[in-house]
Design goal:
alpha+beta; globular; three-stranded mixed β-sheet; 186 residues; single chain; 12 strands; 4 helices; four-stranded mixed β-sheet
Length: 186
């Protein structure tokens, strides 16, 4: 199923309390002075307990060719985060169904810079489970791979430069919750 990209996606600009203060076209929001905006990160697992990782397309303005978590994106104005995740997962990965999609890090916030581009996001982290094959959209995703969670945690700790900064920070926060008995992924 081919999914068309909207002609103009708007990113929701927010204050430090995640209150909407405006919008900006997605194509113009990521610069060397990126304003704080809403986003999401998702970690998708298969029935074997492996996480789906994606290498961002070489065409991406932000973090091209970097490996990252399953899918990231921005909710549109008036769009629920869960709906935004489903929209982007379909567009980027061709996945039509996500089971047990739920938020695990509701207050995650980060700022990162690479090659003169800044990410500045309030970015809740969600987890879900998929059982269908992935069909990556080459304009968004260069490659995909599946790793066991423990292998992924070890790899991101040993080779943090291979992954987006936000993926590394999110994994650390998820691991804290797992170790505290506040979260079980499987």
């Amino acid at each position: 199923m081919a999914v068309k990209k909207p002609t103009e996606e708007l990113v929701v600009l927010v204050d430090e309390n995640n209150v909407m203060i405006g919008t900006c076209p997605k194509d113009g929001v990521h610069t060397n002075h990126t304003p704080l905006h809403r986003a999401f990160s998702s970690f998708l697992f298969n029935q074997k307990g492996e996480i789906l990782l994606q290498q961002r397309s070489h065409l991406k303005k932000t973090w091209p060719l970097m490996w990252s978590n399953s899918c990231c994106g921005h909710p549109l104005p008036e769009e629920k985060t869960e709906d935004a995740i489903k929209r982007r997962v379909l567009f980027e990965l061709g996945i039509t169904e996500i089971e047990n999609l739920h938020e695990v890090l509701p207050g995650f916030r980060y700022k990162a810079e690479r090659e003169g581009i800044i990410e500045n996001e309030i970015c809740p982290v969600w987890v879900g489970y998929i059982s269908q094959d992935v069909t990556p959209n080459s304009t968004e995703v260069e490659a995909c791979k599946w790793l066991g969670w423990d292998t992924f945690v070890e790899e991101i700790e040993q080779r943090p430069g291979n992954y987006s900064e936000w993926a590394g920070w999110e994994v650390k926060e998820i691991q804290k919750k797992i170790k505290a008995g506040e979260l079980a992924l499987f």
